[in-house]
Automatic annotation (TrEMBL):
Probably part of an ABC transporter complex. Probably responsible for the translocation of the substrate across the membrane. Belongs to the binding-protein-dependent transport system permease family. It is found in: Cell membrane. The lineage of its organism: Bacteria, Pseudomonadati, Pseudomonadota, Alphaproteobacteria, Hyphomicrobiales. The keyword ATP-binding does not apply. This is ABC transporter permease. It is a multi-pass membrane protein. SUPFAM superfamilies: MetI-like. Keywords: Cell membrane, Membrane, Transmembrane, Transmembrane helix, Transport. Residues 12-22 have a biased composition (Basic and acidic residues). It comes from Bradyrhizobium uaiense.
Length: 282
């Protein structure tokens, strides 16, 4: 004990001050909760670099333009499509089919998903049918739907609705299952009505999973509409891409692919806005 006292007395005032400052040094906060900090400009810079290298390869003749046209040729093809009015004609038909099929499939999927998540009987029946029918490629049912519904828009819309329905139902009942049961039991202990529990507890808790399902179903709808239009449609982005491929017009074919990509980006931005609006409490 005296040796410790003498060692403290032997320290200079500067050493004592430095040690006290080191002892009171603030510790960095490490509880950020895995908050994403992605840079908005990084993705656009990377995309611009890829397009620049692609354009350089096309201009220098390193790549045959028949197999891979330069971005400038694709942009010119898009401009010609837009100025001629053909782009808006094809795009309007595709948007109509996607919108109608997505709304029908989403509405049915949300209802069935909540029924499976909230009812034991519905769960036993619904999961069996969904597990049996979900792996079937929906585009393979298009000939059968044409036989049932006739040649027209109904088979294409029904194909999209089926693809959207199964993915939506799975995401909804998975979101309902993910809601903490303690919250539901607490609401039941206070005699909260069933409809209020669904609206105030289960719906907000399942909403992140439901919106994540919307991202998946929007991509599924886009894939199915292109496939359906390639099989049996005169107008639509899928029909346009198929026609351009048959004629070996690769610049127009890739123009259709770029239009589909831009449409997918737009839908993703709309879902982002929906998430910001509905999930502001997170």
């Amino acid at each position: 004990m005296p040796s410790a006292r003498f060692s403290m007395l032997d320290r200079s005032p500067q050493e004592t001050k430095d040690r006290s400052a080191e002892a009171t040094r603030p510790v960095a906060f490490r509880g950020a909760g895995f908050t994403p900090r992605g840079s908005r400009s990084a993705g656009w810079i990377a995309l611009a670099l890829v397009i620049a290298v692609w354009q350089l390869a096309g201009s220098a003749g390193w790549v045959n333009p028949l197999f891979l046209p330069a971005p400038s040729a694709i942009a010119m093809a898009v401009y010609k499509l837009a100025s001629s009015g053909a782009l808006w004609q094809h795009l309007s038909w595709s948007i109509m089919r996607i919108g109608t099929g997505w709304i029908i499939g989403t509405a049915a999927g949300v209802i069935v998903g909540f029924a499976i998540g909230l009812s034991t009987m519905a769960r036993g029946v619904g999961i069996t049918f969904i597990s049996a029918l979900f792996p079937i490629p929906k585009i393979a049912l298009l000939p059968l739907l044409i036989l049932w519904l006739g040649i027209g828009e109904e088979p294409k819309i029904a194909t999209i609705a089926l693809g959207v329905f199964f993915s939506t139902a799975i995401s909804v009942y998975s979101g309902v299952d993910a809601v903490p049961r303690n919250l539901i039991r607490m609401a039941q202990s206070f005699n909260v009505p069933f409809h209020a529990i669904v609206r105030r507890v289960i719906w907000p808790g399942a909403l992140p999973s439901i919106l994540a399902g919307f991202r998946i179903t929007s991509s599924v709808a886009l894939l199915l509409v292109v496939s359906a239009e390639m099989i049996g449609a005169q107008y639509g982005i899928g029909a346009f891409v198929l026609q351009a491929g048959n004629l070996m017009q690769t610049d127009q074919l890739l123009a259709g692919v770029v239009i589909l990509s831009l449409f997918g980006l737009l839908v993703g931005k709309l879902i982002n806005l929906l998430e910001v609006r509905l999930l502001h409490w997170r």
